[in-house]
Write a structure and sequence with these properties.
By secondary structure, this protein is of the alpha+beta class. It folds into two domains: about 90 residues, 3-Layer(aba) Sandwich (Glutaredoxin); about 110 residues, Up-down Bundle (Glutathione S-transferase Yfyf (Class Pi), Chain A, domain 2). Helices cover about 50% and strands about 10% of the residues. It is built from nine helices and four strands; from the N terminus they run βαβαββααααααα. The protein has a four-stranded mixed sheet with strand order 2-1-3-4, covered by helices on one side. Helix 1 links the parallel strand 1 and strand 2. Helix 4 packs antiparallel against helix 5 and helix 5 packs across helix 8.
Length: about 220
């Protein structure tokens, strides 16, 4: 059994953040599929054993079950030293992690869900509202990355893995061609050049999710 067991499914970008980190850090890990579409995370026994919040990812390590991707990444950086922000970058790391969870990943993930994972097509007004929120987040990240290779500077850190959650899913799913954002697109390329990088469905070929609905 691998030391790190990541409970996840292929369509979960928040799971992908942790999976990509584990793989690029060269850690001993394995993906454990979660039957999300079948309601596994709603099951009381599942919540009692793994995560009372009823969400993936959940990372099991050394007898402890950890949830929330940003908290997991922080814990892994602290315990392994891999991709850890420098001590003088801690405030910036937290600032950008909070922005990612509240805005960048959140807005992109919500648009993607309504774009392709709901049983019926979303109300165009709802999709337009979510799109404007995602574009606002992209504009901030685009300006930030225009003058640096990675989110905190010259080297990749856990902050980059956090922002990577949904940026490698197909354009048909997300509804966004990120090539339209040159700085973000160049950053995606630098991250994808790291040893161990793989796209989401290849890295997490497990679990079940609601069926994709393409326009």
């Amino acid at each position: 059994m691998a030391r790190y067991r990541l409970h996840c499914n292929g369509t979960s970008g928040n799971s992908y953040k942790v999976a990509l980190y584990l793989n690029c850090a060269g850690l001993d890990w394995e993906p454990i599929g979660v039957d999300f579409a079948g309601g596994a995370t709603l099951d009381g026994a599942w919540r009692e054993r793994l995560n009372p919040m009823g969400e993936v990812p959940v990372l099991e390590a050394d007898g402890v079950a950890m949830s929330q991707s940003a908290a997991i990444l922080l814990r892994l950086a602290e315990t392994t030293g891999q991709f850890a922000p420098a001590s003088n970058q801690r405030f910036e790391a937290m600032r950008w992690l909070f922005f990612d969870n509240h805005k960048f990943t959140n807005n992109l993930a919500m648009h993607r869900f309504q774009n392709c994972l709901t049983p019926r097509a979303a109300d165009p007004a709802v999709l337009a509202f979510l799109r404007s929120r995602a574009e606002s987040s992209f504009a901030i990240a685009e300006r930030h990355l225009a003058s640096r290779a990675f989110m905190l500077g010259a080297l990749p850190t856990i902050v980059d893995f956090s922002y990577a959650g949904y940026v490698y899913y197909p354009t048909a799913e997300t509804g966004f061609d990120l090539a339209a954002y040159p700085a973000i697109d160049a950053w995606r390329g630098r991250l994808a050049a790291l040893p161990g990088w793989k796209p989401p469905y290849e890295l997490m070929p497990v679990g079940t999710s609601p069926p994709l609905r393409m326009a």
